[in-house]
Known about the structure:
Number of helices: 6
CATH architecture of the largest domain: 2-Layer Sandwich
EC number: 6.3.2.6
Distance between the termini: 30 Å
Largest sheet: 7 strands, antiparallel
Family: Belongs to the SAICAR synthetase family.
GO molecular function, one term: phosphoribosylaminoimidazolesuccinocarboxamide synthase activity
Protein name: Phosphoribosylaminoimidazole-succinocarboxamide synthase
Domain SAICAR synthetase/ADE2 N-terminal: 6-232
Oligomer: single chain
Structural class: alpha+beta
Bound molecules: uridine-5'-diphosphate
Amino acid sequence: MEKLEQLYEGKAKKVYKTDDPNEFIIEYKDDATAFNGEKKGSIGGKGVINNKMTELIFTMLEKQGIPTHFIKLLSESEQLVKAVTIFPLEVIIRNTAAGSICKRLGLEEGLKLEAPIFEFCYKNDDFGDPMINDYHVIAMKLATKEDIEVIRDMTFKINDILKAYFLEKGINLVDFKIEFGKTADGQIVLADEISPDTCRFWDVKTNEKLDKDRFRRNLGNVEEAYVEMLKRVKA
Ligand code: UDP
């Protein structure tokens, strides 16, 4: 499989066409950004780690009945995926309060939430990915009511699977962001990535942060945290 025209370059990945219109190649980069692109940097080895971790997690989710865009790894930093049209939505689940919800609602970081919180954000950098609800999604034609139902059901299932999966590895899944896409034949599948860039992972025993918050907050040992998370996922 050969990379043809570059379709898109995001903050952490590039997407290429292939000679098959139903397949794209994703190349994972070491580039890291935070605070809507205000903080820029690079995390050594991140592309390879996130490519591998996404392969392992998406394969595990497929086995548990979650359809994903993942087809196969092509190299250390590249994977072949089903071509999808991405819904311009960031779908977020929070199990424990951290990050923006603490600032917005005055919750203490680490507060165990009584029930998982489901959020939509509108993927639009110009407006800082604002939080929206179902009514905005439908009114703005970002997805239909039926799409939302499928996405929400899949997201809660994914949360149940991931929470248990990471707990076995000594990790508290605090929150995460996922994205969905639609294939040419209309199937909604999990797309994008699941990695320390897109999840908050806290060690169960020590509460040590093993995710991108180490970069966001200049906590040091950023690379080490990504390496440790891949080690736990592989174990
Ligand atoms: N997240 C992400 N991409 C974004 C915004 C958030 O992957 O553009 C992830 C983030 O890593 C965390 C979860 O979504 O696991 C919730 O993030 P939050 O709303 O707290 O925003 P942040 O504090 O990251 O700005």
